[in-house]
Design a protein that fits this description.
Layout (H helix, E strand, L loop, with lengths): L2 E12 L10 E17 L13 E8 L4 E8 L5 E3 L8 H17 L2 H12 L2 E7 L7 H6 L6 H5 L30 H16 L11 H17 L6 H8 L2 E4 L9 H5 L4 H10 L5 E4 L6 E7 L7 H14 L1 H31 L1 H11 L14 H31 L6 H11 L4 E5 L9 E6 L3 H10 L3 E2 L10 E3 L3 H11 L5
Parallel strand pairs: 3-6
Antiparallel strand pairs: 1-2, 1-13, 2-6, 2-7, 3-4, 4-5, 7-8, 9-11, 9-12, 10-11
Helix pairs in contact: 1-5, 1-6, 1-9, 5-6, 5-7, 6-7, 10-11, 10-13, 11-12, 11-13, 12-13
InterPro entries: Erg8 (IPR016005), GHMP_kinase_C_sf (IPR036554), GHMP_kinase_N_dom (IPR006204), Phosphomevalonate_kinase (IPR035102), Ribosomal_Su5_D2-typ_SF (IPR020568), Ribsml_uS5_D2-typ_fold_subgr (IPR014721)
GO biological process, one term: farnesyl diphosphate biosynthetic process, mevalonate pathway
Organism: Jatropha curcas (Barbados nut)
Amino acid sequence: MAVVASAPGKVLMTGGYLILERPNAGIVLSTNARFYAIVKPLYDEIKPDSWAWAWTDVKLTSPQLSRESSYKLSLKNLTLQCVSSSTSRNPFVEQAVQYAVAAAHATFGIDKKDVLNKLLLQGLDITILGCNDFYSYRNQIEARGLPLAPEALAALPSFTSITFNNEDANGQNCKPEVAKTGLGSSAAMTTAVVASLLHYLGVVNLSSLSKDLDIVHIIAQTAHCIAQGKVGSGFDVSSAVYGSHRYVRFSPEVLSPTQDSAKGIPLQEVIADILRGKWNHERTIFSLPPLMNLLLGEPGSGGSSTPSMVGAVKKWQKSDPQKAQETWRKLSESNLALETQFNILSKLAEEHWDAYKCVIDSCSLQKAEKWIKQATEPRQEAVVKALLGARNVMLEIRNHMRKMGEAAGVPTEPESQTQLLDTTMDMEGVLLAGVPGAGGFDAVFAVTLGNSSSNITKAWSSLNVLALLVREDPRGVSLESGDPRTKEITSAVSSIHIE
């Protein structure tokens, strides 16, 4: 029986750089762009002599990259050995498999281990699929002479093959081999693989999401950090598991047992220690207030390297601690202020829906300087004040981020992005706009009111910005009813009208 799990990509709206240090918080929105992992047995039955086997088979398929890798999984020390000639390995999936299987060994008693071994002896057949939104198809759209509009993206078949960037003349890969949109594909992919495997092996039950999600989170964070070769803030994995929320990172020490695996300590003992560890990350429920939309645009100026930008900011922090601390404090206060304005708006929507809806509808047709005229009574005025408050705070956040970038010598909000964001914030129905996460050239986001999004996508198109199909979806990791590729076929068939 196949198990299919999916996990969402993310947009870090506030908390870029600060989120690396406790107790700073960041607001992370999960999206409708999802990564899927399909796990099923490789063989229908176990061979009679399988009790003597020390290894089982694992097959990993990535149809979009036209790649297939074969592995042997040691049933004794739970490590994977690649046995196919495939030169390109996927460390995220490899670590996800090892740690998920180790977690099953660490949590099951003797009685269940027999069942687990039988399941593993049937082999693991794993397929990974990422929604088109994770990847940039801008080049294909431009090559076909199509307009830079979401309609062109929507016309692509789901899970379209991904083109690799060409190497340059020296054979050096200048760009990453696959152009991405910055939605956190590796975190979503790792989480989907961990979740589907843990469900398949009976460690968690994804259909009744309770404390089981915490196990998925711990295993996915561990696998992702090991594959990355460093302990990051973990907000991307956290949103892939739990959906949209306000996040404060875990203490990196909780992952120190992973260093023991290098000393030859069995993986199941390492993961048992990690599962017992003091995971002190914090998350508070958060999502955009009603009638607000998240919009993402790809400016097409080439991606930025987040790790090198983070490195430069850390270096600046050390060289000028006083200035850095002051900028940090101001940024932190502004981030908190934005969150407060959003919470006020959500509360106003809950308590005075008619006044709230009326203001959002009328402001969605106007530029911000005319919003205050839309309020005809005190409740409506409260809504407009909170909208303008959120807007002004976002301008402060952008200002602090720019200053930090200038001091550290990194393009947190490059000149071209500043012009684009200012133009965007001057459009009808735009609440705010910014550069997500660490900043750079990757993407821009806007939060729009009511039905104003379509006008903004058209305006972006004329500015050479491709609006993506991504929207906020506060759901985290989910168990799916079947292979997403067959779902696409079914929905396409059901939409055919027979005259």
